[in-house]
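Regression test case RT-17, inverse folding.

Input:
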């Protein structure tokens, strides 16, 4: 294959996920190689033939957007697209998108100051959840159960951000879930696997020790994921759903544009990397027609 047939895998480092993806892409007969940040200059300068597609798997949100934007402006198709990555990396933007498209989502408000956080928590009622707009693995997420929690949160935040440069944050209604949430992995438009993340903690991130259990993709899950794809466009997503224990309703909590899957795949047995590689091959075949 020529350079223009290559698939680039933009990475910070080769984690198990990226190693699986490289192998799966090559199994599809594609030429695939990693792309580090310092390699980007040669691509955008046109010193090498443009790749057919770039999979964006950078750990840093800033780097992921930076790489995808520059590749797109150089005429390279990226998965996911820069605009999609930007939205998925900002919980506030996601909340606005979900509201505009009628996607069921916990009531979420932006707050641009400490006083707005206090007021918004009081307006929504406690418990409420305060989250940074950008972040993964449950970091920086706080459950406000009474006024002292809010003051403790504000005191800690002020100690590292006295001038409020790290605002906005989002304040979200607390959803009482039945000991688990759901992660649905979407490839293109298709939900390929759903897992429960089970934990005694109110945060059910696998990085915080949640247990993974495979469940069937229900019609409701498929509908919600379809609404997400309609809003964001086809791509590779981890769609997080949460069930309201009091009503049984499923809500879209957030969407991850760079989902990890290696550890969970070892448990549930679905070859996520293979599904994604097959989708890339189908996309390239369709674009060549």
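Golden output:
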């Amino acid at each position: 294959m020529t350079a223009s047939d290559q698939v680039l895998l933009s990475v910070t480092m080769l984690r198990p996920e990226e190693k699986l993806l490289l192998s799966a892409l090559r199994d599809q007969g594609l030429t695939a190689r990693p792309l580090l940040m310092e390699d980007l200059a040669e691509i955008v300068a046109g010193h090498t033939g443009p790749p057919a597609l770039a999979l964006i798997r950078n750990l840093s949100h800033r780097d992921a957007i930076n790489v995808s934007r520059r590749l797109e402006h150089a005429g390279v198709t990226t998965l996911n697209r820069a605009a999609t990555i930007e939205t998925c990396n900002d919980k506030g933007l996601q909340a606005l998108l979900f509201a505009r498209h009628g996607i069921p989502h916990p009531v979420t408000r932006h707050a641009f100051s400490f006083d707005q956080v206090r007021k918004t928590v009081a307006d929504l009622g406690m418990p409420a959840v305060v989250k940074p707009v950008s972040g993964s693995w449950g970091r920086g997420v706080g459950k406000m159960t009474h006024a002292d929690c809010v003051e403790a949160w504000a005191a800690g935040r002020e100690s590292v951000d006295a001038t409020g440069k790290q605002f906005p944050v989002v304040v979200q209604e607390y959803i009482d879930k039945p000991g688990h949430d759901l992660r649905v992995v979407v490839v293109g438009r298709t939900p390929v696997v759903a897992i429960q993340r089970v934990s005694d903690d109110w945060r059910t991130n696998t990085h915080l020790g949640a247990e993974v259990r495979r469940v069937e993709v229900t019609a409701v899950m498929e509908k919600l994921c379809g609404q997400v794809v309609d809003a964001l466009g086809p791509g590779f997503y981890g769609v997080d759903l949460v069930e309201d224990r009091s009503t049984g309703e499923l809500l879209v909590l957030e969407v991850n544009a760079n989902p990890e899957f290696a550890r969970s795949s070892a448990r549930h047995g679905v070859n996520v990397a293979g599904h994604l590689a097959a989708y890339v091959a189908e996309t390239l075949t369709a674009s060549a027609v």
